[in-house]
Amino acid sequence: MNLTIFSIFVLFTIFMVGIVLAVFSDTFGVLIPEGTSVRGCETTDECYIPFGVKIDVGDEVIWTNVDMAFHTVTSGNPTDGPDDLFDSGMFKIDEQFSHKFEESGNFDYFCTLHPWMEGIIVVQVPAEDVSENGGGCLIATATYGSELAPQVQQLRELRDNKLLQTETGSAFMHGFNDFYYSFSPGIADYERENPYFKETVKIAITPMISSLSILNHVEMETDAEVLGYGISLILLNFGMYVGIPAIVVLGIRKKI
Ligand SMILES: [Cu+2]
Question: How high is the pLDDT of residue 174?
């Protein structure tokens, strides 16, 4: 029995860590469409689609060649040549090339075989205030794709209007952020190797985000109320993510 409880605890921990995996990077796709090996695509900036991609530092761009011809993705421009920041070399139909951008700036690139093919990646520093004040918002932003997503707005409201209004809530946010940023960068690297992971995380965290929305509709003015609702929600989530699966597993085992 002790072993079972320990296993459940380990699984729950893995799950929580998994959520954090979704935080730090996004992946963006660029297509090399058919027919780009002859001139013409440059007139409408459609040699790489999209021509320009705006990303945050740490994000990854994946180029996919869907043309019949070989192409390259080479940093620099046709006039001055490659600048050696990244270079795919020649890659053929259905092959991919990816590059992770670790510094901010505007990065031009082109195809060395077809110098009319050009594109640009604009790499921005993520807004600092988001990461300092809202771990929850960061997770949700990465998972739901935009800071304007309703789930993200909901978390931001909860943080600003409820949690940061009381001492217990503020203390919780500080502790949470310290914990959160102490181990996430290493895990983020692992996530970049698993492109399907984000969708899994989305499915996994949606019940939790939904349960947090309860807090937007209750009065939380005193520290005792924050504590009470906080603990209730943790128990509710533990029940949803650990209790229900555990009951199901135990039920199956009884039948066997
Ligand atoms: Cu090309």
Answer: 73
